[in-house]
Amino acid sequence: MTDVAPRTISECPFVSVVVPTHGRRALLERLLHSLLAQQWPADRFEIIVVHNYTPDGTDTLVAALAANSKVALHYHRTAFTRPGPSRQYGSERAQGSVLAFIDDDCQATPGWIAAGVAAWRQGLALTQGRTLPRPDQPRRLLEKTVTVTGPTAFFETCNIFYDTAAFRAVGGFPERFRVVRAGEDTSLGWTLRAAGYATGFAADALVYHEVFAVSYWDWLREVNIVTELPALAAAYPAMRQHLYLGVFLSRTTAAFDLFAIGLIGGAGLHPLLLLLCLPYCAVRMLERGRHRRPHILLARLLFGLPRAAAMAWVLLMGSLRARSPVL
User: Fold this and answer.
1) Last residue of some domain: 159, 191, 214?
2) 170 lies in a domain?
3) What was the pLDDT predicted at 141?
4) What band does 81 get if pLDDT is binned at 50, 70 and 90?
5) 234 located within any domain
6) Domain for residue 228, yes or no?
7) What are the C-alpha distances in Å from 85 to residues 172, 212, 298?
8) pTM for this structure?
9) Phi/psi of residue 99, nearest 5 degrees
10) 289: domain range?
């Protein structure tokens, strides 16, 4: 990370908040109310809603809020199929010195913008905010949410701030990863780092993320989000410093690869190879996270095996395509 002199703008910088949305009118309404309630001067920020169109009343919702808002609230109807192009589209219409991104399934705390700007004042070109699951929602064994409690190698766009000049100097989200399922945020973060810009984390820039209940099938399909990781590691070799042993996505994926080798080898070569299955079982039982009860941990291990296998397969195929191993 390159040292950058703090910015000394005395007045409140103008902030542009970009929100991509698709088919989530109710969640978007909650988010917009949280943005309109920011502890930041109403004439010093704008909200840009980029709607990958769905006939669910999102357009009329934004129009109604804009009509009574002191904050400039802009609506753009598009036909994109991914959030990456929507984010880029919104950024190209932004007027602010600070560019903020937040997703439609999040809710910003009142000091979110102020905390992001405070980090920007210190010279950061990219600032990740803290993201937690909504505390008023129940947690489930099968769920979809986001937790970011410190700086990550993925630069998740559900809660992030950029210096607009730096963002535009590198061309915004790299087009190669902008059009795929995921990866435009990670690629931009590493592009900025490679260009010598400073990045950091602001714990006070807090947003809460929706906790979605998902079916088992949808839970399995979520592993497709890692499809581009091998290509990202090939494009940004410094990213490997944040991978387990430089090759594995995590300690858990490394342990599962041993599990698979042990299972196949134990069945076809020698029973002693089954011992290679033990590290994965140990990792899944000992890394408890929010679960504490042994029967829940065991259920998570058993029900998680197909998902772990699916993720291993997706990573393997992506590694072969990119000629860059991430397992």
Assistant:
1) 214
2) yes
3) 80
4) confident
5) no
6) no
7) 11, 24, 41
8) 0.92
9) -115, 120
10) 251-322
- Read off the tokens for 145: 């949410």
List C-alpha distances in Å: 306 to 135, 259, 282, 313, 315. 29, 12, 17, 10, 14
Same domain, residue pair 83 and 206: yes
Give residue for tokens 């950024």: 91
State the burial class of residue 66 (Cβ atoms within 10 Å of its Cβ: 0-12, 13-18, 19+): middle
Number of domains within the chain: 2
Average pLDDT, the chain: 92
φ and ψ at residue 66, rounded to 5 degrees: -65, -35
Q: Assess if residue 327 is contained within a domain.
A: no
Same domain, 62 and 147: yes
**Residue that finishes a domain, picked among 164, 196, 214:** 214
Query: 48 with 168, same domain?
Result: yes
Q: Which stretch of 5-14, 38-47, 190-199, 274-283 has the lowest confidence by average pLDDT?
A: 5-14
Element (H, E) at 46: strand 45-52
pLDDT band at 2 (very low <50, low <70, confident <90, very high): very low
Query: Which phi and psi angles does 130 have, rounded to 5°?
Result: -90, 135
Euclidean distance between CA atoms 112 and 33, whole angstroms: 13
Confirm if 91 and 18 have CB atoms less than 8 A apart. Answer: yes
CA-CA distance, 95 to 321, in Å (whole number)? 39
| 154: three-class secondary structure by DSSP | coil
Asked if residue 156 and residue 268 are part of one domain, the reply reads no
- Dihedral sign from CA coordinates of 137, 138, 144, 146: positive
N residues, the chain: 327
260 and 194 belong to one structural domain: no
Residues 44 and 146 in one domain: yes
Contacts of 122 (CB under 8 A, 6+ apart): 6, 7, 200
Q: What is the pLDDT of residues 151-179, one digit of tens each?
A: 999 999 999 999 999 999 999 999 988 87
Could you give the strand order of the β-sheet that contains 106-108, starting from the edge strand earlier in sequence?
A: 72-78, 45-52, 15-21, 98-102, 159-163, 126-133, 199-209, 106-108
